[in-house]
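step=encode ok
step=design start
structure_in=
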């Protein structure tokens, strides 16, 4: 990318405003159009110029397109943000425009939060019913933090982020978090929950846990919190987790011990009724992980277990992703 392209990309008042907004948070193109008071096609053209110059990058999420600062050119983007901050401090007109944009951005944040609250209200009864069957969330979270506290978390992947609670919990302890979910509705809930975090620290991605949209060996830590019981093929999920983990990286799995609450299949779409220690040990070993003893937290009816394992350094990521252990029948 030529330096002339970068300066040409910034030589427009609208693109300067977009660049300043992206220093605050990731935004959908439609949200940018709302803040800027311009049509979406016009904003899309500006977005294209910034992306072509390497100052921003797009990410599709269903029918929405989100824009964020380019991670590949972090130093350049940081320098641009410093320049824009200086311009805002010294140019009253630009400062007034940026302040007006931030007020509109605050309205978008509030709309996201309101949509999340509505989602929680619709589903609160279902979640409360399930929570009553197992250990309190606060106890599970405390034990999970303790179990992962022995080493730095580095870059963390939260698979099946749901409401974003795990990403929020581990944000103070990780260098960077990628929160992945297949559901667009859940990602919008998570985005509202996590929008107070710096844009450079958190990334939300739509994707499937059996086909993770990431290169091999890109993460130091992977979390699967109450996710694996939704998998028809848990071995494939753990194989994918192993593929994207660095050698020696850690995986933390929070799920139920084997149980006989058959109604969870229909009421909460659970595919598997928990995992026995034998099943989980086989799954972890086949995917190239160590298989330590789990932490057990007994509840009213369901036992929550936490497995923390390391990816064995000598294991091939490709072999781990292809591994399928012979398991006893699913409960």
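sequence_out=
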């Amino acid at each position: 990318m030529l330096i002339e392209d970068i300066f040409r990309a910034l030589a427009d008042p609208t693109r300067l405003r977009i660049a300043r907004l992206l220093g605050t948070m990731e935004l959908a193109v439609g949200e940018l159009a709302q803040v800027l008071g311009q049509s979406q096609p016009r904003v899309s053209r500006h977005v294209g110029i910034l992306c072509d110059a390497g100052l921003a990058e797009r990410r599709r999420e269903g029918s929405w397109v989100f824009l964020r600062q380019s991670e590949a050119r972090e130093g350049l983007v940081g320098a641009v943000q410093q320049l824009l901050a200086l311009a805002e401090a010294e140019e009253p007109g630009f400062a007034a425009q940026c302040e007006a944009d931030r007020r509109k951005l605050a309205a978008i944040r509030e709309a996201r939060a309101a949509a999340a609250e509505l989602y929680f209200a619709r589903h609160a009864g279902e979640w409360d019913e399930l929570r009553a069957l197992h250990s309190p969330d606060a106890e599970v979270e405390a034990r999970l933090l303790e179990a992962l506290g022995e080493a730095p978390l580095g870059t963390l992947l939260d698979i099946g982020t749901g409401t974003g609670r795990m990403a929020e919990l581990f944000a103070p302890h990780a260098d960077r978090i990628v929160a992945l979910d297949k559901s667009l509705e859940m990602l919008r809930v998570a985005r509202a929950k996590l929008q107070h975090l710096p844009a450079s620290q958190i990334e939300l991605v739509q994707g499937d846990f059996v086909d993770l949209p990431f290169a091999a060996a890109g993460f130091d830590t992977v979390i699967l919190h109450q996710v694996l019981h939704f998998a028809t093929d848990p071995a494939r999920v753990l194989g994918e987790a192993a593929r994207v983990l660095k050698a020696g990286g850690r995986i933390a799995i929070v799920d139920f011990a084997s149980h006989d609450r058959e109604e969870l299949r229909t009421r909460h779409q659970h595919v598997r009724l928990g995992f026995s220690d034998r099943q989980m040990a086989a799954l972890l070993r086949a995917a190239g992980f160590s298989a330590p003893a789990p932490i057990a937290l007994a509840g009213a009816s369901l036992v929550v277990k936490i497995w923390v394992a390391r990816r064995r350094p000598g294991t091939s990521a490709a072999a781990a992703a292809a591994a399928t252990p012979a398991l006893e029948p699913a409960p």
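step=design ok
step=annotate ok -> Confidence is low (pLDDT under 50) at residues 326-331.
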